[in-house]
Amino acid sequence: MECDPKGAGARPELCRQAGVKAYPTWVLGGERREGVLSLDQLAELSRFRYASESGKR
Prior knowledge:
- The protein has a domain of about 30 residues.
- About 25% of the residues lie in helices and about 15% in strands.
- By secondary structure, the chain is α+β, with helices and mostly antiparallel strands.
């Protein structure tokens, strides 16, 4: 959901209720992480398989 009050379709009240204090905030595998994540990090945490530029996937 969009937490930035200036963002399209923003839902800042839902973000507050969910305890989101910074963004981006990710909840993956039951764990909350704050901050920017690389595509490789997101893929690993979400168990998504793809062919990355680094050839790791």
